[in-house]
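During the reporting period the student researcher (J.K.) took over the structure-prediction task from the postdoctoral fellow and processed the backlog of single-chain submissions. One of the processed entries is reproduced below for the supervisory committee.
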Amino acid sequence: MNKTKVESAVMPANWPLRLAFAAAAAALALSAIPHISHAQGIVRGAQEGSYEGNRVAGPVGGVVGGAVGAGVGGAVGAVEGVFGLPHHRWHCHGYRDSYGRFHCYR
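J.K. obtained the following structure tokens:
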């Protein structure tokens, strides 16, 4: 005697609403991902820190500078990526010559 019961799967009545919320949540999660350019903070920070540390204190300074530069570069890149802050660069005033190259006044 077999007493098992088989029930068929039934779609809930509010499945289009759940699907819309899931799609909105996925879109929001994808928009929160930092830009790929902000991921360069770790690598560039390690390179610059290693260079400066090696220049100032030799090989040991290069190792320490690389570690500190990677940490700081990663932190700055993550903060800029999460909050969407622009990277501050020095902007010069200048002109374009006849070949299309930009020249700064300073």
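The committee noted the following: The mean pLDDT is 76.
J.K. will present the remaining backlog at the next meeting.
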